[in-house]
Specification:
Elements (H helix, E strand, L loop, with lengths): L3 E2 L2 H12 L10 H14 L12 E4 L6 H9 L4 E3 L2 H5 L4 H10 L4 E4 L7 E2 L11 H5 L17 H15 L7 E5 L7 H7 L4 E6 L2 H22 L16 H8 L4 H18 L6 E5 H6 L1 H11 L8 H8 L13 H12 L6
Parallel strand pairs: 2-6, 2-7, 3-6, 7-8
Antiparallel strand pairs: 1-4, 4-5
């Protein structure tokens, strides 16, 4: 897929950075951090935000259509979200957003996963640099212990302040949307700090997901090897379920035996914990692709939003089902055995 540059300056400044993209950005040097933090503190006024109620959360394993669904909701005319540039500069979101828009600096191209999904500096991003800050998480840990349900005021104020800065990068949009594939082990935190959230869980055939997770693991680690990331030399991009470490030790990180079990564990966690929330919608990726209009109408009705009609939404909607890559998956019979109990809940085999 062709990479597009907004202008020559964008290509000159950011071509290499875009080619070396990774969802956990490289740390900024002290001069760059000081510059951005100074301007953020002294030149921008943050919008008032009293709470983070009614946030829309997209749950789902990686490779389950979460990015597609997240983009569709995020691009709704009433929603705002964490962008790739904000994730890269979480302490100075308004500064980086202003500079990119002021000088029309942008690059659009395929994600390094080579999965036919386009991304640019303003595309919706997962909170890779914010969530760990809020809840003291690290990607090195293979299991994230659930947080206590005790409310900590300092944590809540930090969340509200950070989200207020994000909201200030948008105009009149009022509904925050968050997608993070590790949310299965974060349901206690979501229930504690985000009142009345709308929880949308997207599920995909485990035969596809278990295989695609293996491709994700290879893509991430090949990219890390290519870019020589200073913070990590490898990563396990799977949800931090309790059995993950044991699965990796017994079956290997690059085995469908591991990824199929992770899929099943996530489904079990969600079905056990979803009773903590009053508003839960579950849907299948296959239905989103086969009947996109009907599925998105259901999503927007659930979120109490009007139908999406923004240019970005319509562009994303038109891309549904269009892919330029080919996958070769296998081990279906073994994956079916490992996931049958939970897969049957959603009508798979």
């Amino acid at each position: 897929m062709e990479t597009k540059y907004s202008n020559f300056i964008a290509k000159l400044l950011f071509k290499k950075e875009f080619e070396n993209q990774f969802f956990v950005p490289k740390p900024k040097n002290i001069i760059e951090k000081s510059f951005f933090n100074f301007f953020e503190k002294n030149f921008f006024k943050t919008k008032q935000l009293d709470n983070v109620d009614n946030t829309i959360f997209v749950f789902g394993l990686p490779r389950s259509g979460t990015t597609l669904l997240y983009n569709l909701i995020a691009y709704h005319q009433e929603c705002y979200y964490i962008t790739n540039s904000i994730n890269a500069y979480p302490e100075a979101p308004q500064t980086v957003d202003f500079l990119l828009k002021k000088f029309n600096l942008n690059i659009e191209g395929e994600r390094f996963f080579k999965d036919s999904m386009l991304t640019d500096f303003h595309s919706p991003s997962e909170p890779h640099c914010l969530w760990p800050k809020w809840f003291n998480r690290t990607v090195e840990n293979l299991h994230w212990q659930e947080h206590s349900t005790a409310f900590i005021d300092e944590t809540y104020q930090m969340i509200v302040e950070d989200i207020a800065k994000i909201k200030s990068c948008f105009e009149n949009e009022s509904r925050l949307v968050i997608k993070y594939p590790v949310l299965f082990t974060e349901m206690e935190a979501v229930a504690t700090y985000f009142k009345n959230p709308k929880i949308i869980h997207i599920v995909r055939d485990p035969r596809m997901v278990a295989n695609s997770l293996l491709k994700l693991h290879r893509s991430c680690n090949e990219q890390l090897d290519k870019i020589k990331h200073p913070m990590m030399d490898s990563i396990v991009p799977y949800p931090r379920v309790e059995g993950l470490k044991d699965y990796i030790e017994k079956y290997g990180v690059d085995s469908h035996e591991t990824t199929a079990r992770v899929w099943s564990d996530c489904i079990e966690i969600f079905n056990k914990k979803k009773k903590m929330f009053s508003n839960v919608l579950e849907l299948k990726y296959e239905d989103l692709v086969a009947n996109p209009e009907e599925t998105m109408n259901k999503v927007f009705n659930f979120c109490e939003l009007a139908p999406g009609d923004s240019p970005k939404y319509l562009k994303e909607f038109a891309s549904i089902g269009k892919v330029s890559h080919v996958n070769k998956y296998n081990n279906f019979a073994e994956i079916e055995k490992l996931t049958k109990k939970n897969a049957s809940l959603y009508g798979y085999f």
